[in-house]
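Morning run. Coffee first, then this:
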Amino acid sequence: MKRIAAAALCLMLAACVAPVSRTTPVVASARVLAPSEASAEMAALRRRLEQAATGAIPRADVHWSAQPGDALQLILPMARVFAAGSAQLRADALECFDGIAQALRGSGAVVLQIVVDGDPGEAADSSLGERRAASLAAYLDELGLDGAHLRHAGSAGPETGVVMLTIRPVVAGAEAQAWMPPAPAASREPGGLK
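And here it is:
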């Protein structure tokens, strides 16, 4: 029995120090881009998304940025997306997300990560950000986006009052960990889940 425990410990230690393998992301039904295709695909997608995102939300409130690895990030003010103190999407934001879903629907080679930060003007509610992110993900899923391509989380970070959508290409050779939802906190502690 001690030999089995020692062998298991050695395997766990070896896994901790082994280099991270570079594999194809694990995303059900996703098309995978060759590294040489990612930049052109994301540039075309950005043009479609910029047109879609500025429908009902004023252009001055929509902020785009390029991220490492050809990713795009869209930042929207919380007050333009959700009703105050609620996970209910505002009616004027629905048009914006309808356009975003339409632009993304044809591109199976992306993963959309939704992060909703807290709003400093609202009472502290640790679950509100998560409920808002889940509400937006559910709405986009209803609009025909494949749920396997959606990741969402409320932020435990500083309360900035923004909704961040990060769109990453699924590229051959990318690290699978970048596309998987975060592991539960308990599994990162010694002993893990039981």
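The longest helix spans residues 35-53. Good start to the day.
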